[in-house]
Amino acid sequence: MPDETKGSEPVSPSAEGANTPGAPVGPEKSEAQPTAPQGASPEVNTPPSGTPVASSETEPAEATKSAAAAKPAAPATAKPAAPAAGAAKAAVPPKPEGPKLEPWESELITDLKRLYGSGIIEASRYLGQHYMVVDSSILPEILRRMRHDELFDYCVDITAVHYPKRDQQFDIIYVLYSFPHNQRIRVKTRIKDGEHVPSAFPIWPTADWLEREVFDMFGIVFDGHPGLKRILLPEGWHGHPLRKDYDILQQDKEWVQINLGIESGQ
After folding, report:
1. Architecture of the 102-231 domain
2. Full-model pTM
3. Which helix (H) or strand (E) is 103 found in, with range?
4. Is residue 249 pLDDT above 90, yes or no?
């Protein structure tokens, strides 16, 4: 048998690169890598024929192209065109028409026009509300007829409106309601400044305080009223605040000085 102690050292059957006792592991291996002789070409590993070789110069460009091809292009956003200089502004749509007066035709109006003719100046309907304008000379007859014949048994309100530029400066409005008919109408008449009106107190006792308020605020006198005097302002106050020619800041300085001892109520 050959002597195993002589000759070359036996080779370990372990795989090449396997760790040996006392040898460094991994990147800390101390053995130097063989270098090519000076002037010799570096050894290039040539793949088998037919295998494409990736070039270090073309690979990034090809990768960029493939990434660009895979990513969808962002849609171009169109910028709004700038308005031309001096372009006309968009036309403003016209305002819608408001409610209009409509003629009020009914059996009541037909009978009144037959009886009083031109004394019934107007009969209209506005926003579903009915009113008639009558001459002041027939006002007492119209009010009595509305109360006793047409059964408008409730005088809801009496008020006035001042139109200083008009010859007949005041409108007096009677708001009447019929419980039997469940109907509401307005009777209006027009008078000049200083003209008196017959009181409706004998027809509707509720007209008492209503006419006093119109007298206090507008200065309209109702003949036949049982106690026509101011109801909101003190006796002795000068002027009537709801007239259009009464300044909103105007005060009865004399009354304020006498009764309150100050220069003005403002």
Report:
1. 2-Layer Sandwich (3.30)
2. 0.64
3. strand 102-103
4. no
